[in-house]
Amino acid sequence: MKRPFRVGYQNLDKEVILDDLPSEGEVPKWLTGTLVRNGPARWDLPKQSVRHWFDGQAMLHKFSFQNGQVDYANKFIRSNTFQSAEKTGKLTYSEFATDPCRNIFQRLMSTFSPSFTTNTNVNITKIANKFIAMTELPIPMEFDPETLETVGEVSYLNEIPMTTTTAHPHYDPERQMGFNSAIHFGRVSQYIVYGQPHDSWDRKVVAKHDVEEPGYLHSFGMSERFIIWTEYPLKAVPLQMLISGKPFADNLTWDPSRKARFLLFDKDTGELDRVVEADPFFCFHHINAYEDGDDVIVDLAAYEDGRIVKDLFMANLREEPFQPLSQPQFRRYHLKSGESHAKCEMMATNGFELPRINYGRINAKPYRYAYGLGETADRVDGYLNQICKVDLESKEELCWHVRGHFPGEPVFVEAPNPQSEDDGVLLSVVLDSDKGISYLLILNAQTMEMVSKTAVSHHIPYGFHGQYFK
Ligand code: CO
Question: Ligand 1 center to residue 53 CA distance, Å?
Answer without folding.
Answer: 13
